[in-house]
């Protein structure tokens, strides 16, 4: 326990220090208000004993500055020790952020009891702060679990579906097009059969990174849509733009050159891509994200049928 004593009268300060040390506390003394605030910032004491009549800024101003220095959720008990015994001084001191007010001459018995009481309150406050921090951290992890795919670290299907509806509505409002791309790894069952499931998982991570790395706009989103299927939503992109992005993403996966000797179409892992575009609210046949997904799925099927490792948008 570290106690900061802000007291300009040397004899009073000495008596307080002796008393505090007898109780087993560490005492630091500041002889005026400015030094008191500096010492508070530097030492971060557990309790402050604060005289009011000081040279320079008074104790009430010191209390105000101490409160302003504290970080969110932090609280350091401040007890005034003052010769001023009028209602106005007590009211002003506590309003400025002090927690208790003892009048001089100080009774050592009362001071000890007050210090112990403040210690208990400060401990409770610290536990509360710790609990809040743990809750924040748990909440952050929960949010991540809800939105992020655990294996690949890209968005999961839930996040993708939410984003797709959101972008659908936004693009409808702005009268902008929207493109959806679906990716499916070619002959991945055979890859798993030869490399094992862990080898397959490792390839999935690398493919996810390549696909997401090939996206360029901050509004684009890549998600793991199913086992070895990925999806990308490209807001404000029409079918011409969609073709270009799809081809770039297909090429990024091929460029990984992950060996796949059992693939009938080459020696490395490739993806097939199906894409569809619409002007939400304007394209008559495509009146929902579900229809857009279905169109992209059909395009993917055609990419597979046409020989794989290609994009049909
Ligand atoms: P193609 O798509 O070219 O028609 O052939 P394919 O063999 O890839 O066929 P399909 O897309 O139907 O295969 C899905 C396979 O992907 C099944 C399974 O072996 C593998 N797979 C799906 N999810 C996972 C996963 O989470 N981890 C691993 N390692 N493999 C997965
Ligand atoms: Mg004084
Ligand atoms: Mg598949
Ligand atoms: Mg299939
Ligand atoms: Mg596949």
TrEMBL record:
Chemical reaction(s) catalysed:
2 GTP = 3',3'-c-di-GMP + 2 diphosphate
A biological process term (GO) from this entry: cell adhesion involved in single-species biofilm formation
Q: Which InterPro entries match?
A: CheY-like_superfamily, Diguanylate_Cyclase, GGDEF_dom, Nucleotide_cyclase, Rev_trsase/Diguanyl_cyclase, Sig_transdc_resp-reg_receiver
Name recorded for this polypeptide: diguanylate cyclase
Write out the GO cellular component annotations.
plasma membrane
Response regulatory domain boundaries: 2-119
**MF GO annotations:** diguanylate cyclase activity
State the organism's lineage.
Bacteria, Pseudomonadati, Pseudomonadota, Hydrogenophilia, Hydrogenophilales
Q: Has UniProt tagged this entry with the keyword rRNA processing?
A: no
Which SMART domains does the annotation name? GGDEF, REC
Source domain of life is Bacteria
Sites where 4-aspartylphosphate occurs are at 51
Q: What is its EC number?
A: 2.7.7.65
